[in-house]
Design brief:
mainly alpha, globular
Length: 346
């Protein structure tokens, strides 16, 4: 009897400690993502200012480093206006849903060997299933606002995200054929002797373009085409409602960059050698992961400053008439090549 009680006590204590560990780890990841998101906005404004030969934010704090904090306080102090003809409950839930789903996607992204909140066997499916749900927050915002401009922006976003989700799905199939697993940690380990970006560079480039459309980033930010839709689905939002949509967009940028790092750039893995010196011995994997994510974020920002916005018909034609058939043909090519070399994973 005593042994049974002690066994049960040990089990309960282990579960409690594991629950505390998960909550602390989740809070740490959330804080890191929020800080990164805040200073990503500052970096974007600074880099775009440099590209366009202007200073960018430089008033609040040294070189403008306190600008994100000032922006957050400004939005927090503003009045939260709910339109009289809107659906109040759905109007308030939509931005919270968008931001929450952007954070949930980080639960399966490994940042280093063993550093992941939930190392599930179907991590890729979970990651993109959660990402696909983000469209519900946008379409709820457009419908609940009871505004034709907001609703039209929401419909545009739904069609856009569904269209490019198909091409992203075929890219995932290509990588699954090469690695034979849907676990993100195992996919990183499969790139120890070569990152997938080298043999699958056309797929990586197509994934990056589709990720821009998936996150509604320039030049595919048609749901927020201010010259046509007066800011689109979030036109009726103010204060923290608008801020949560803003946070969700930039958090999705970081999440997509982390996903591309894991799928194509070897995650936390360093290059094998550089001038004959191994790097993995003295640079932590977390640093490598952060540097690769930063590289993709710089590409996001550079593309915004360099390219004009697409028309909506061009956006749909690119997704359905170019990316979809090419993505399908690449799946057949990769599968056929591996089958001819007897290299399909078991």
């Amino acid at each position: 009897m005593y042994g049974f009680i002690m066994t049960r006590f040990t089990t309960i204590r282990s579960r409690l400690l594991y629950g505390v560990y998960l909550r602390v780890s989740s809070l740490r990841v959330m804080l890191c993502v929020l800080v990164a998101m805040a200073y990503l906005t500052l970096a974007e404004r600074k880099i775009m200012g440099s590209i366009q030969r202007r200073r960018g934010p430089n008033v609040i704090g040294v070189y403008g480093v306190l600008t994100p904090l000032a922006d957050g306080l400004k939005l927090l102090r503003k009045e939260n206006v709910v339109p009289a003809s809107s659906n109040p409950w759905l109007f308030q839930v939509a931005p919270v849903l968008t931001f929450s789903l952007a954070l949930v996607g980080w639960t399966v992204i490994p940042r280093n060997e063993g550093i992941v909140l939930s190392d599930v066997p179907r991590g890729v499916r979970f990651r993109f299933a959660v990402g696909s749900l983000g469209v519900y927050g946008i379409i709820l915002a457009g419908w609940a606002s009871n505004s034709k401009y907001a609703f039209l922006g929401a419909l545009r976003s739904t069609a856009q995200m569904v269209s490019y989700e198909v091409s992203i799905g075929f890219v995932r199939v290509s990588i699954f054929v090469c690695s034979g697993t849907m676990n993100l940690t195992t996919r990183v380990q499969a790139q120890q002797y070569g990152w997938y970006v080298i043999p699958l560079f056309p797929r990586a480039r197509r994934f990056f373009v589709s990720a821009r459309a998936e996150t509604n980033r320039h030049p595919f930010d048609l749901p927020e085409d201010e010259s046509v839709l007066v800011s689109g689905y979030n036109v009726e939002y103010s204060s923290m409602g608008f801020a949560l949509f803003f946070l969700g967009e930039y958090t999705n940028m970081i999440l997509m960059s982390g996903t591309m790092t894991v799928l194509f750039l070897g995650g936390w893995l360093s290059p094998r050698e550089w001038r004959g010196r191994p790097f993995r011995n003295w640079i932590p994997g977390v640093i490598w992961f952060a540097l690769k994510v930063t590289f993709f974020l710089l590409l996001f920002i550079w593309a915004r400053a360099a390219y004009p916005r697409y028309r909506y018909d061009q956006l749909m034609r690119l997704g359905w008439k170019v990316f979809l058939p090419v993505s399908r043909s690449w799946v057949r090519r990769i599968s056929g090549f591996l089958m001819s070399r007897d290299g399909l994973p078991s």
